Amino acid sequence: MSRTEEFEGLRPLLFAIAYRILGSVTEAEDAVQETWLRYEGAPEEPRSVKAFLSSVVTRISIDVLRSARVRREEYVGPWFPEPLLSDPYDDPERSAELADSLSMAALLLLERLTPPERAVFVLREVFGFGFPEIASAVGRSEAACRQLAVRARRHMDAGRPRFEADRRERDELAGRFFDAFREGDVDGLRELLAADVRMVADGGGKAPQIARDIVGSDNVTRVLAAFVAPFVAIGIVVEPHEVNGQPGAIFRDRDGKVLTVLVLDVLDGQVQTIRTVINPDKLGHVGPVADAWAIAREANRLRRPRPDRRP
C-alpha cells in the first residue's frame, strides 16, 4: 500500500482527533494537511503509521490551539466551535464516546482544559489510545499523561451536562420545534422550551447579534417571536440537519445561502439550550454564506409597524 493510500485510510481518524482538540473544521483540516506533508517528507516508513500520524496531528493541533487561545480571549461575544454536520470517523466499539465528545456542550467544556489536558483527554477517553502512544504524542512521560488524564476527566465530569434523551424522542421533539418555526407557531415553540432554557448566539462581531445570552422561556419566546414571522415572510428556509451529533438545522436564505446553523440541547422532553452560529467565518464549510446584515435589515422592515395611511 502506498503512503497516499495509508494516509487517506487514516484521514477520517486524524480529522476527528484534530477537530475535537481544536473545535474548528478549518483548523482541523489544515492540521491534517500539515500532517500529510510531514509524513510525505519522512525519510523512513514508521513502524506504526497510525501511531505516527496520530502523534503528528496531535502535536500540530496542540500548537495551533495555544495560538488560538489568544484569539479566543479577544473574541467578540460568546465563542462556539465551528458546526460539524457529520463526523467522518466511525468506530462501532467507541460510538458512545465519539458521539458524547462531539456535542457543542462537550466541546465547550473542553475549552476549560489546558491544551495538553485536552489532547490527553481526547486521545484517551474518546479514542482509547494507550498511555505509551499518548506520551509520545504530547511529549510527556506516561506518568505525567496519567495525571493529565485524571485532571481532565475531573473537570469534564464536574461540568458535563447529560443529554441522554432517547434519540427517537429527541429527534421527534426537534422536528416539532422546527415545524413550529416554519409555520410561525410561537405558542408551539413555547410549549417545547424548558422553564430555564438558554438561547445564545455566536456572531463574533461579524453578524447581527440575535441573542447574546437569553435565559427563561418567556424571554426566549419573545426573541423567537421577533424573528419567526419576518423570517417566514422573507423566505428563510429551515433545513433540519444533525449538527455535532445533536438535532439542529441550517437556516438558508431564499437563494440557498447559509444564514445560520442552530443546535438544540434536549433533555426530559424539553429544549434546554438553543445555540446559533451566525459568524460567517464559521459557516463557509457548510456552503455559500448569506449576507446576514441584509437579511436583518429586511426582517426589521417587516417588523416595523407601518403608519396608517389616510386619504
From TrEMBL:
Keyword Transcription regulation listed: yes
Entry's transmembrane regions: none
Classification of source organism: Bacteria, Bacillati, Actinomycetota, Actinomycetes, Streptosporangiales
UniProt keyword list: Sigma factor, Transcription, Transcription regulation
Subunit structure, as described in the record: Interacts transiently with the RNA polymerase catalytic core formed by RpoA, RpoB, RpoC and RpoZ (2 alpha, 1 beta, 1 beta' and 1 omega subunit) to form the RNA polymerase holoenzyme that can initiate transcription.
Positions of the RNA polymerase sigma factor 70 region 4 type domain: 105-156
Domain SnoaL-like: 176-251
Start and end residues of each RNA polymerase sigma-70 region domain: 8-69
Stored NCBIfam families: PRK09636.1, sigma70-ECF, SigX4
Pfam families assigned to the protein according to its UniProt record, in alphabetical order: Sigma70_r2, Sigma70_r4_2, SnoaL_2
Keyword Magnesium on entry: no
InterPro entries: ECF_Sigma-70_Domain, NTF2-like_dom_sf, RNA_pol_sigma-70_dom, RNA_pol_sigma-70_ECF, RNA_pol_sigma70_r2, RNA_pol_sigma70_r4_t2, RNA_pol_sigma_r2, RNA_pol_sigma_r3/r4-like
Family statement: Belongs to the sigma-70 factor family. ECF subfamily.
Species, as recorded: Nonomuraea antimicrobica
The protein's name: Sigma-70 family RNA polymerase sigma factor
